[in-house]
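Please supply some protein, with fold tokens.
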Amino acid sequence: PGRHLGVFPEVASHWDFMVDSIRQQTTSPNILNLFGYTGLASLAAASAGASVTHVDASKKSVAWARENQELSGLSDKPIRWIVEDAVKYVQREIKRGVKYDGIILDPPKFGRGPKGEVWEVYKSLPSLLEMCRQCLSDKPLFIIVTVYAVRASAIHVAQAVDEMMKKYKGDVESGELVTREKSANRLLSQAVYARWSSK
């Protein structure tokens, strides 16, 4: 999968946020990770006590994620690995009446599903967020949306998440995910994000 190492240190704050939220629950929350790639968010959620459904259109990425589960000593954790187009999968979950307590979305700028489905983040994300809302439980814990390599501002992403979650009591925070270039002592912007958490 591309030239990436499959590790994205800039999203570590999301993992901490998610793990803290999951550990505060008395029962195992049901978490959906869309565009899950190498599975690090799925592993973090599962290690904290969640049941996770990991969805990615790339068979190679899902195989890599499963390998990461084994290498991390988390083979006993409840993670369902799904090779599927994210939009089609969520549409099916709506029909099945499946509900999730938290949803993680890390969509690419552009992509294709296993059957040639086209994904363009500007056109596709708003409708996917609306579909995800229909898959939420009555008391959701969080929504995390991270968008790489786009011109959209964090405010734009936050407004989309706020619209999605308007019927729930919670707060949206947004910003940029950055890494520090030590040699030049400067920050490098990697992505914009918005995340909602329940009150």
